[in-house]
C-alpha cells in the first residue's frame, strides 16, 4: 500500500464484538460425542491468531481455492454470488467459520449436502456441516449470497473494501480488510489460496481481476469475464474492478501476460507511466530476484482514493499515483504478495522494502543514496515525531506509521551495515526461500544475521524495535560516513 501523501497514518477501528473463543475443546458429554462421532470433532472458531485482529480469519482449515461466480449490476449496485471454497480440514471439524461483511447468505452446502449456517457479529459466517469433516481431507463449501456490498470507512485512509467509482463502476481494495465485502473468505494473510473469478456484468462494462484473463462470453444483455490467479494470494490482495475500462494487453519479454486497465477519466499522463512497467520489473529483478508472479499489469481508477494497493499481479492506482507509486506497488509483488506477512505486526516486511525500492529506482538514475540518506537524517535529527514509530510490533492501528519514511532510512542503514553484496544477496535468498509463503519480521532479522555473520541484534533493536532515534553507531554505519 502507498498512502496518499498527506494520509500517512492508518487508524483501524476494529470492533472486537465479543465473538467466540478461539478454540473450543471437544465436549466431555458422551451424548454430544456420539453426535460428532467417530471422533470428537472440533467446533473451530473465529480468528486465525493475529494479535491485532483476533477475529480475522478462522481456525480449523486451510483454503486452497476460492472459485467465485458473481453477478454485479452497476445500476442497482446489487451483487449476487456463488462462492465455492475448497479447503483442507486441519482437524476433525463439526463446525467452522468464514468471514463475510454485510452480504446475506441464502444457502450453504458442504460437498453436496445442505449445511446449517448462521451469520453472527460483524462478519462471522458459522457453518455446521451435515456430517463432521475429517482431518486432512479436502472439502468444498458452496455459499450462495448477495446484497449491496459495503464500504469500510476509515478515519485516516478513507474508504476501503467495496468502493463505487465516480464513473458508476466499482472496485474492491483495502488493507487489512477488503475481500470479505465481496466474497466469503478466511480473511487472514496466513491462509493464501488460488482465486478464480467469473463475473457477469451488463454489456458495456468490463471486469478486471487478478492473474490471467480467460474467455469472455455474452448472453442476453450480460457479459461474463473470467480470471484465474494460480499463485496463492492473501485475501486482501484479491480484487475485482468493474468499469468501462480501456484495456491494453501486452507481454513481458519472457511471455508473462500484462493487462493494463484505465477507467474513463484517467489522466493522459498515466499511460506513459504504466508503459514503463516492463523496465521497472526488469530492474527490480536485478535487485530482488526473478519476478515471482505469473501475470502483471495495473488498474488505474480515476478517483482520488486514499491509497494505491498492491492487489496481486494488478495493483490498483489512485488518480494521484505516479511512477514512484508504480515502483512501490510492483516491489510488493515480491514483498507482501509472494512473501506475505504472518502477522500485521510484520508489516515492515512489506512496506519498508517496497518503499526502499523507490530509492533503488532513484539510484538507477544516478541519485547518490548515501548523500540523500545523510541529508534526510540531518534534516530530521531533531524531529522526534519522525523517529517515534516502531517499525516492528508497532501496535494495532499504527501499522502504517513510520514504514514509508523511517522504514526507508532503516533499510538503507541495514544495507550500509552489512554491505551491498550481502544486502542484495540476502534479499534475493529471502524472496526465494519464502516464495509463495509467509514470513515474520524476526525471521528477516535472523536471515540477515546469518547472511552477514554479524550479530545485528542491537542494530535491529535501535532501528526497528525501538521508538526514538537510533544511536549514532547505528544511524551512521561506517559505510555511510563521509
Ligand atoms: Zn505499500
UniProtKB/TrEMBL annotation:
Keyword DNA-binding: no
Residue ranges annotated for the Aminopeptidase N-like N-terminal domain, each copy included: 66-237
Keyword annotations from UniProtKB, A to Z: Hydrolase, Metal-binding, Metalloprotease, Protease, Zinc
CDD domains listed in its UniProt record: M1_APN_like
Membrane-spanning segments: none
Coiled coil segments of this chain: none
Root EC class: hydrolase
Enzyme Commission number: 3.4.11.2
Domain Peptidase M1 membrane alanine aminopeptidase as annotated: residue spans: 324-463
Protein name: Aminopeptidase N
The organism of origin for this protein: Lentzea cavernae
Organism lineage: Bacteria, Bacillati, Actinomycetota, Actinomycetes, Pseudonocardiales
